[in-house]
Design goal:
two-stranded antiparallel ribbon, 5-stranded antiparallel β-sheet, single chain, 44% helix
């Protein structure tokens, strides 16, 4: 039986109207974000998804943005998945030697245990790695699970192929270019955030544990949270490259913002190739987060 051409045309018209309507619905938000992007310096990637309405937006999603410490989020998911499988335990003690605590890298863990030679729980290491973005804690976790490829492959099991985890913090510290092997596209990170929030990857207990660490994040207070009303819950993970010859490769923040109406917005903002001071990039992130908050609240 040949398809009814009139019916097919009618369906095409209906779908076209729906697509145009969806585009017009969030067009004010798109214009607001575009204005911020245009006045900021560098390449800015943004992905947004309202997890209740499924409304989405993205900018510069074709670019592979260096994650820097944002990759501690998928790393921690990978570690906690092994807790779910009873391969690891949150309360198990991990021996930390002085050689594990490299100097000249961001490490509150090293500041607390400067001489090493201590046994601390896995939960404490994850807390330092996520909430305080500890670089030594990050590499201890990579060694614990068997390397960066383990995390890279685990995330891809969930159909997220546009996140690449290849280099450790130590390797990035030695070679500026290594960070570009640890990249993602903004929508891929939002997809991972969404799956995390929807408890599609971890069990309830480990999911709740990681959520708590992300809510308690102390880094990047002027980024996603910078212009939001005091008390707004934001579960997030930041990433920063610092400057090299006046250029920042990464000023990033990703996570979930809880709105006053109870809705949740997954958001990922990456700023790369910026000659501006990092405080300027942080302000751009804060401004984008604020217009998103105001639009959906």
């Amino acid at each position: 039986m040949k398809p009814d051409k009139t019916l097919l045309f009618s369906l095409f018209v209906i779908i076209s109207i729906l697509l145009i309507s969806c585009k017009e619905e969030n067009e004010p938000l798109r214009k607001s974000i575009q204005t911020i992007i245009e006045k900021a310096d560098g390449t800015i990637g943004v992905a947004i998804k309202n997890l209740e309405t499924d409304d989405t937006l993205s900018f510069n999603n074709g670019h592979k943005f260096p994650m820097q410490s944002v990759y501690k989020f998928p790393l921690s998911i990978t570690v906690l998945s092994k807790v779910d499988k009873s391969e690891l335990k949150l309360d198990q003690k991990i021996h930390i030697s002085k050689t594990d605590l490299l100097p000249n890298t961001w490490s509150p863990l090293r500041e607390k245990y400067p001489e090493g030679n201590v046994d601390i729980t896995l939960s404490e290491i994850i807390s330092y790695t996520v909430s305080q973005s500890d670089n030594n804690g990050c590499d201890i976790l990579f060694r614990l699970i068997g390397g960066t490829e383990v995390a890279n492959d685990f995330i891809r099991e969930f159909g997220i192929n546009e996140i690449s985890i290849k280099g450790t913090e130590e390797e990035m510290h030695k070679d500026w270019n290594v960070q570009f092997k640890n990249w993602c596209k903004p929508t891929a990170m939002v997809k991972l955030v969404e799956k995390f929030y929807g408890q599609e990857i971890l069990k309830d207990s480990t999911n709740d544990f990681l959520w708590k660490q992300m809510v308690e994040t102390t880094t990047g207070p002027k980024r996603l949270k910078g212009l939001l009303p005091e008390g707004t819950t934001v579960a997030h993970k930041t990433g920063s490259s610092g400057k090299n010859e006046g250029l920042s490769a990464a000023v990033n923040d990703v996570g979930i913002i809880i709105l006053p109406n109870g809705q949740h917005v997954a958001i990922a903002i990456f700023i790369s190739n910026s000659k501006a001071e990092d405080e300027v990039s942080e302000k751009a992130i804060a401004e984008i987060a604020k217009v998103v908050y105001d639009y959906y609240k």
